[in-house]
Automatic annotation (TrEMBL):
It holds the Pfam family B12D. Keywords: Membrane, Transmembrane, Transmembrane helix. This is NADH dehydrogenase [ubiquinone] 1 alpha subcomplex subunit 4. PANTHER family: GEO09626P1, NADH-UBIQUINONE OXIDOREDUCTASE MLRQ SUBUNIT. InterPro entries: B12D (IPR010530). The chain crosses the membrane at residues 14-34. It comes from Glossina austeni (Savannah tsetse fly).
């Protein structure tokens, strides 16, 4: 396909910024997807060892960015089912 190979980049070097921007966007999307899959308390990978993983995040800040409040100091409104 024309425009996708090394020969096309040599003929038209203006395509290099386009390739760089697309690659950076794809890398950012993959990084954020992996971060959500590994750090989000809603995702459970091993339910046999920890059947209620959301209890680990009861007093932790798990939001990506919050300039206004620190969630590690607030009490979670979630009920405690262990009692």
């Amino acid at each position: 396909m024309q425009g996708l190979g090394i020969q096309s980049i040599k003929k038209n070097p203006a395509l290099i910024p386009l390739y760089v921007c697309v690659a950076a966007g794809a890398a950012g999307a993959v990084y954020y997807m992996l971060r959500l899959a590994t750090r989000n308390p809603d995702v459970t990978w091993n339910r046999s060892t920890n059947p209620e993983p959301w209890q680990e995040y009861k007093n932790k800040q798990y939001k990506f960015y919050s300039p206004i409040r620190d969630y590690s100091k607030t009490k979670s409104p979630a009920p405690n089912y262990e009692d």
